[in-house]
Design brief:
Layout: H1 3-17, H2 21-38, H3 48-51, E1 55-59, H4 65-71, H5 73-78, E2 80-84, H6 87-93, E3 100-103, H7 109-118, E4 121-126, H8 131-137, E5 145-149, E6 159-160, H9 167-177, E7 182-186, H10 205-221, E8 227-229
């Protein structure tokens, strides 16, 4: 999705959830500066070979994830795999290192670091309330890191924006942006239940549920002809 189209959606989100765009810009600025210090800056184009015209499985961290990983184990190892943050832990437990991770760094950090060390491309997302964790942890990742923002990416030399708000729907938007042939989605639960791999003990559950509502809505904005919720 091009930024101008995303901008209209983003404005609806920040109005609904009471987000201050200035906080998002501050976090994006910090991430952009740190990418210069802690890693070799990489373009989002790095993930294109993993997604273009490929069958892609996107794994969310909902309560259905564990059963779905067992059910679709064969597919999981045959398809390109994107983990939405905490889903990384479940994938590692099932012997699958994700090809790509979309994360705002509030999943289980040791598993995110481990997967990145084993070759997962980590796409770190800057938003208003994660600037501290970005500053504290970005230098700990040994593998490839790419930065994204939900604001205008043009002021930032190392950040991209292809749409998406939560880790889960950003993963779907990423696969869609790079024209995946088929996007299969597992571990996405829109019934209000929060899965253990969301690591939500220190999170605002009500806000989490409101964000999940936006996740469902945002995925619905995309062309559904190549997207399947399993």
């Amino acid at each position: 999705m091009q930024y101008q189209k995303w901008r209209t959606i983003y404005e609806d989100i920040i109005q609904d959830l009471g987000i201050d765009e200035h906080d998002d810009i501050r976090s994006a600025t910090i991430l952009n500066e740190l990418l210069d210090q802690y890693s070799t800056p990489r373009s989002l184009e790095l993930v294109k070979p993993l997604l273009f015209n490929k069958e892609v499985m996107v794994c969310g961290a909902g309560p259905s994830l564990t059963d779905s990983l067992k059910k679709y184990s064969k597919n999981l190892h045959q398809m390109s795999c994107i983990a939405a943050d905490g889903a990384t832990s479940a994938l590692l437990e099932h012997g699958r290192t994700p090809d790509i991770i979309t994360s705002d760094l509030d999943g289980y950090l040791p598993d995110l670091i481990k997967a990145n060390k084993y070759g997962s491309i980590l796409i770190v997302h800057a938003h208003g309330d994660n600037h501290q964790v970005i500053k504290q942890t970005l230098h700990r990742f040994p593998g490839p890191i790419i930065g994204t923002t939900q604001t205008d990416p043009s002021p930032f030399s190392h950040l991209s924006n292809v749409g998406g708000f939560t880790d889960g729907d950003r993963a779907v938007y990423l696969a869609d942006h790079y024209q995946a042939r088929r996007i299969s989605i597992i571990g996405f639960d829109f019934n209000g239940k929060i899965g253990s791999y969301s690591f939500a003990s220190n999170k605002n559950i009500q806000m989490k549920k409101r964000k999940l509502n936006w996740c469902e809505k945002l995925i619905g904005y995309l062309d559904q002809s190549h997207i399947e919720l399993l």
